Amino acid sequence: MKLELQRIGIIGLGLIGGSLAAAVKSRRNSIKISAYDTDQTALRRGLGDNLIDVACDSVQEVADNSDLIVLAVPVNSAKANLIQLADFKGIITDVGSVKAPLLASAREVFGDLAQVVPGHPIAGSEKHGVEAADANLFTDHKIILTPTSDTRPEVVERVAQLWTSLGAMVLMMDVQDHDRILAQTSHLPHLLAYALVDLLAVENEDLAVFQYAAGGFRDFSRIAASDVSMWRDIFISNKKELLAAVRTYRARLEGLEKLIEDDQFDQLEQVLSRAKAARDYFTSINDN
Question: Cβ neighbours of residue 133 under 8 Å, at least 6 residues apart?
Answer without folding.
Answer: 15, 18, 19, 21, 22, 49, 51
